[in-house]
Amino acid sequence: MAPDIASRPTARMRTRALYLAAGLAIIGAGLTLRFVPVGLPLAIVKYGGSALWGAMVYCLVAVLLPGRRTRAILIVAGTIALLVELSRLIHTPALDAFRLTLAGALLLGRIFSPWNLVAYAAGLAASALVDRLVRSRADKE
Hints:
The chain has 141 residues and is mainly α.
């Protein structure tokens, strides 16, 4: 068996671990941005958190779809972000009750805003750019 074929599962697990670590770091940054008063303007806190949420979705999709191209990960993550934002237009007692919890507010949000879509797109684009740069650097090594 060729060495590169034998090492693929190991490389794939390492890649998944890196995406997961990046996702956890992004979650930490987002929670810090939202809950630790550092004196940033409200718009940066709100939309920076949304951009980080988009980046986190990108990382989690990359963990779930190992070996996929950046474009495929971006499309799936973008679709998820769009659907989550559009879900804010749906109101049921159970869904609204969940949105009032901390977990519901962080995962789903409370109020629809097209500006969130812009922030998600920024976070997704930044993630895809970093992903592509890291992948191209790894391919050269």
